[in-house]
Amino acid sequence: MKKIDLSNSISEKDYNIGKIISVYDTMQKGYRYKLSEPIGKNFDPEFTPDLSPQEMLELGIFEGKYLNDCTSEFPREWYENALKKNKLSFKKPDISRNCFGIKSRQPLSVWIQKHWIIPSDPDVRGWFQWYCRYYLGRREPKLDIRQIKRWRSFRRHAGQIKANCKPKDLTCRPRQRQALLQWAYDPFI
Fold first, then answer.
1. What share of the chain in percent tops pLDDT 70?
2. Rounded CA gap, 70 and 80, in Å?
3. Please, are residues 61 and 177 in contact by the beta-carbon 8 Å criterion?
4. Which pairing describes strands 29-34 and 20-24: parallel, antiparallel, or unpaired?
5. pLDDT single digits (tens) 71-126
6. What are phi and psi of 21, to 5 degrees?
7. Secondary structure, 3-state, the chain
8. pLDDT (tens digit per residue) in 33-46
9. Most exposed among 16, 61, 125, 172, judged by the fewest C-beta atoms under 10 Å?
């Protein structure tokens, strides 16, 4: 069985201002960025996510297959805790790893076709990869504005759940709840 390799990962406490992150994974090689803010701090006032990337991974997102080849880029704790909770998949996407046990995403080809991912975008995997890097402390003003705008527009799904479901009825609109989770919104409304 193929396993997630954490041998090159570092602890969250080692992500400090000024640290240079070098990326070498299956989708990106040689990209580098510098952390300019403390981890999890100093977010744009327009960006107030309910969940951290670690919390999202622990709850179960993207069928457990989203960043499994990025263990040298992101904190070890993000993976260790998700593994303990059986929320990562080793071989192929597995919807049972999702919090709501339902598929709620489009394939990468659709993201590219709809211009949700732009070829010049350093975050080749889209919004969640951007959020992980932003959370670590990378700031790319032009990119940040675009992604925060996308995140804010997703809030409408929470409004739809509130308008159509009884509070805390997690059986109501599970696909939309899973999607909210994948955008760092509280899906348990």
1. 96
2. 13
3. no
4. antiparallel
5. 999 999 999 999 999 999 878 889 999 999 998 777 777 777 877 776 667 888 88
6. -105, 125
7. CCCCCCCCCCCHHHCCCCCEEEEECCCCEEEEEECCCCCCCCCCCCCCCCCCHHHHHHHCCHHHCCCCCCCCCCCHHHHHHHHHCCCCCCCCCCHHHCCCCCCCCCCHHHHHHCCCCCCCCCCCCCHHHHHHHHHHCCCCHHHHHHHHHHHHHCCHHHHHHHHHCCCCCCCCCHHHHHHHHCCCCCCCC
8. 999 999 999 999 99
9. 16
pLDDT in tens, 13-25: 999 999 999 998 8
CA–CA separation, 13 and 16 (whole Å): 7
Q: For the chain, what are the domain ranges?
A: 12-181
Let me know the angle formed at the C-alpha of 101 by 166 and 128, rounded to the nearest 5 degrees: 95
Look up the pTM and report it. 0.92
